[in-house]
Amino acid sequence: MPANALWSGNGEAAGVGDNVLRAYWQAECRAAGDDPDAIAASAMEQDRADQNPTLDELCAQVFDPKTGLTSHSKEFTHAATISAVLDALPHGVADAAEAEQLTNSVLRQAGYAVQLNPKGAQHFAHADRYTTADVVAAESLIVSEATNRLGTQAAVVSSDTVDMTLSTVEAQHGDSFTFSDEQRAVPERLLTAGHGIGAVVGVAGAGKTTIMDTARQAWEAHGLVIAGASTAAVAAANLKAEAGIESRTLASWLTGIRNGGSGLTGVDVLVVDEAAMCDDRDVAELLTHAAEIGTKVVGSSARPASAAASPPCTTSWAGSPSARISARRTWSSAGPWSCGATTTAWNRSVPSPGPVACTRSRTRAPPSPRCSPSGPTSGPRTPMTTPPCSSSSCSPPPTRSWKG
Q1: How far is CA 298 from the centre of its chain?
Q2: pLDDT at 270 over 80
Q3: Which CATH architecture is the domain 139-346 placed in?
């Protein structure tokens, strides 16, 4: 360092060029026994690829069932994969071309991504749809278990008990409550068909909770043990309060099974509430254990199976014998809107009957002055409490049916 160098208050040399300072500190470094060139190479020139995850590590992270692309949805797009890949690289990539190349390698890696048929708008970039191999395997196992347990005489109840329970539930709800023929067919099927896996699918308000309460009473009258599983603790508490079924979360059941606990031992029937919202991989694990124990599993869902998004591969619960309920709005002769339900019972061997009108009615708010039984009326507009008329003669609104 030149003798005439001036030092600033913060310890830096003033009036000295960078090359002079660099040479000075390199000399100091060598005097201390270090190699300044090696230190600089380590800090600035090390290959990024050595610091980022390997391809297998990257795939394991991107497709992790609990935190990856399929943790909340059964399908994902090419664009979502690019985002997940970049998020998993702590040291990033050089440019967009490298990101594309790495993403393609991840999607082509054996044992992970499975490409699905095109769906929706295809003019967007990276719109290709994928799921994962473990989701496909889980769906296949669910369908296989449902098929294998057809007619296994699981939790069968006598017809006399079914009729007595239906009459008891009608009496519990008062004289105005009556099951329609199709509504009666749902618990009759669950209680007498003897299938090891079943499903009840219908929109909210179609009577699924009442039906499950009815089935519970009939099973308990035969001395069977009923339990419930839900996606969340709040839903489990609601299943207990509304249908009388002691319930736990699905995660709680699976934790016990994985840790070598009793699992479903001693449970004759397990009701899975909102089964379509459960992860297919968890459901597959549960059904495998239920088959070993001999527990009947009934999935109840307010929409068609399966899971959070539309089923990308197979309809998981479609392989199980099921009763499907759909709400329909009708205009009654008395004037107020009423809610009817139509049920289609289905399995692999019995053809489904046609829809039957529901005799159960739940009165809703009176129609607006703009829509009365005698036709539209004059007067000030009021907030609509029911759907508006589709014509001047107040014809019934279009049927809203649930297609599973």
Answers
A1: 16
A2: yes
A3: 3-Layer(aba) Sandwich (3.40)
